Give the backbone structure.
Amino acid sequence: VQLQASGGGLVQTGGSLRLSCAASGLPFSRNSMGWFRQAPGKEREFVAAITWNGGTTVYADSVKGRFTISRDNAKNTVYLQMNSLQPDDTAVYYCGARTGGSNLQYSRYYLNWGQGTLVTVSS
C-alpha cells in the first residue's frame, strides 16, 4: 500500500493550496480517506475525512468553511482544497486510509498513512 501526498508549499496568509493524495495497492473506492496534520511540537490532529463514495464529509472546527475534501475514485486520489490559509495551518499534512465510515476523526482507525507534505503559511 502506498499513499503519496503532494501539493504542499509556502503560501502567504489568505492564500490557497490544494493537496493531493494518490493511493495504490488498496481498494481505494472501498476506503474512507482522511487528512491529518502535525505542527512542530504538537500532536497529530484531524483535519478532514470523506467516506468511500464521498457521501459523508467531516471537518475539524478549525477548518470548516475554509477547507474542502473531495475524492476521485477513478484516479484513486483524494484532495484537500485549502483556502484562507492562516499561520496556524502550518504543519505537515498526512493522508490516511481506512475501512468503515464511522469515527472518521480518530487517527487510530486509519491503517495506512502517506509520508506527509509540508504546508507553511507565512504571516
